[in-house]
Design a protein that fits this description.
single chain, 106 residues, alpha/beta, 4 helices, globular
C-alpha cells in the first residue's frame, strides 16, 4: 500500500493505492491521523484501493471520529468497487460522507 497527501483548496487529500489490510492498516492509520491532525477538512481518495479489511475500516472509522471531535469533516471519495462492497456490508456507507470524485468532495 502506498499513499500520497496533498493540500487542495484548504483541504487535505490523502490518496491510497493498494490493499489496506492487517499488514498495512497501521501505516494507513498513522497517515489518516496525521492528515486529521492538520486541522483542515480531510478527503480520503480510495480509487486505488482494491481491497480493504476490517482493520483498514477501523482505521477509517477512528479517523472519522477524531475529525468529528476536532470539529472537522472527513469524507471518502472515488471509492473503488471492492472498498465500497466492504463499507456497504458493514453499513458504513450510511456513516461516511461519500462522494463520486475528489473534485465533488472538495
Amino acid at each position: 500500500m502506498k499513499h500520497e497527501v496533498t493540500d487542495e483548496g484548504g483541504s487535505v487529500v490523502i490518496a491510497f493505492e493498494g490493499d489496506i489490510d492487517l499488514q498495512t492498516s497501521p501505516k494507513a492509520r498513522d497517515a489518516l491521523l496525521d492528515a486529521v491532525g492538520r486541522g483542515q477538512p480531510v478527503v480520503v481518495n480510495l480509487a486505488g484501493v482494491g481491497y480493504i479489511d476490517s482493520s483498514g475500516v477501523a482505521s477509517l472509522v477512528e479517523a472519522l471520529q477524531t475529525a468529528k471531535k476536532g470539529g472537522q469533516t472527513l469524507a471518502l471519495a472515488a471509492v473503488s468497487e471492492g472498498a465500497m462492497r466492504v463499507l456497504k456490508l458493514a453499513r458504513l456507507d450510511a456513516v461516511f460522507t461519500i462522494h463520486a470524485t475528489v473534485a465533488d468532495a472538495l
